[in-house]
Specification:
Elements (H helix, E strand, L loop, with lengths): L27 E3 L4 E3 L14 E2 L5 H13 L11
Parallel strand pairs: 1-3
Antiparallel strand pairs: 1-2
Length: 82
Amino acid sequence: MSASAVYVGLTVEHEVLKSADLLAQHCFFDPARNAYVDENDKVIAGRTEPCGMFALANFALLESQVDDALAGRLAPAPSSAA
């Protein structure tokens, strides 16, 4: 990345949650167990939608994924240079 690259954080939108926004069942695939788990890491009977990946990530990865989904490109990583 060039020294002139700028890292900008952006809030997409804020809404009050409605009951229709809540999931009846959280679902994540845990590759270590080869099983589906809920938000408390408890194995569930099977996959429900939407289903994500049970793994460690950070906000930079999340921001890159959101930016990629919305803009079709990856956000630049923050520079470690002061």
